[in-house]
Amino acid sequence: MDDILTWLTEPAHWSGEDGIPQRLLEHLVYSSVAVFIAAVIAIPLGLFIGHTGRGRFVVVNVAGAARAIPSLGLLFIAVLFLGPRLSGDAAFLIPCLIVLVVLAIPPILAGAYSGVEEVDPAARDAAKGMGMRDFDVLIEVELPCAMPLIFSGLRSGTLQVVATATIAATAGLGGLGRFLIDGLSVRDFAQMAGGAALVALLALVVDLGFAIVQRYAVSPGLTGRTRVRRAAEPGPSPDPALQTTT
Amino acid sequence: MTWFTEHFSDVLSLTGKHIYLAGVPLLLGLIIAIPLGWLARRYKALYPPLIIGTGLLYTIPSLALFILMPLLIGTRILDPINVVVAMTIYTIALLVRTVADGLGAVPESVNQSATAMGFNRFRRLFTVELPLAVPVISAGLRVAAVSNVSIVSVAAIIGVPQLGSLFTDGFRRNFADPIVVGIVACVLLAVMFDLVIVGITRLITPWQRIGKAA
Description:
The complex is a heterodimer.
Chain A: H1 2-9, H2 20-52, H3 56-68, H4 71-82, H5 90-117, H6 121-129, H7 134-167, H8 177-185, H9 189-217, H10 220-223
Helix pairs in contact in A: 1-9, 2-5, 2-7, 3-5, 4-5, 5-7, 6-7, 7-9, 8-9
Chain B: H1 2-6, H2 8-42, H3 47-59, H4 62-73, H5 80-104, H6 108-116, H7 121-152, H8 164-172, H9 176-204, H10 206-213
Helix pairs in contact in B: 2-3, 2-5, 2-7, 2-9, 3-5, 4-5, 5-7, 6-7, 7-9, 8-9
């Protein structure tokens, strides 16, 4: 324990190319780029599937099957196949990013899809009854109502990415995983455990950040935070199928 | 494919280790999650801390948790027991909520009937509430089983042998065959775990089938 604190508080570990701030920044950049790309693909697709009911079968099975695929194996296969076709840093950066995106898509897709599907049919009917067009129903009624589940999808997708970005250090990627892998190769347990503590802390902080954003992004009418309803119903409990980790 | 036929016995023994590392935590996690889920259900004040607390454990990336395990339980670094305990923690994290929600879904009238028939709390839990919660718990267990099989492979990085070792081994030698075999074996194993849980669930909830046939 003391060794880890010594490692974490050593000023030399807080500066330079392989310092903690630099590694943390790399980790955040990889993760946010991957989650962003995955969200741009998966949220519209999930909304579409939830709204039309088309391709429902595919989503349910893809989301389930994706969980069974070991991310470490996928990562190595991607680097082995794509690496030789790319040069320089891109040789591992691009394959790793692709894998991160691929792993983040199923939970985000499942969240967006089930969010729309579980919208109270009465709300949908009311919107149609008011003369809203199909697209407006989706954007102005279903999307806001689906927010809690979209967020839980985003949260589990992000955690999956943060975790996989850590193990991607074995394939040469930067980020906080470097401390774990480099420490392991020289049997420097303080560095390994210090890095592991930072990774765990990062995951917790990111998840907390999502919880806070979600609090303000989700309509108060859904969360039961308003006092309008006498008995606030508990929000939709996240489907266990949305939870993933690596 | 020749690689696979030549190394069949190695793959088999790694599969055995994988089953152990993913399966034992599944059973341990279930056994621990049942009383925790019951507590969360029985005492409302305990529900948020138990659910949030176990949820936080689930956010910790697996590689980090494997490495931090010796600090938490005082084991040797890189000991396979670290993986078993870490996987048990993940299983508990997934199942506590499932058990609590499953027990919560038991109709109140059924509970009251059991009480009226003179069942004490203990007997009611084991002969009425838990059996009725089996379908919900089983759904959570399936998710935990499939993700356990996938997460365990990460332990190859810290040198704990199982199917994930095929990944690290293939990558080190720049050789795709073992990696592909490993991925396929992992997926098959996940399907196998899933089928076993579905099968056991069907066996212990015969009323579900009768209900459907009628």
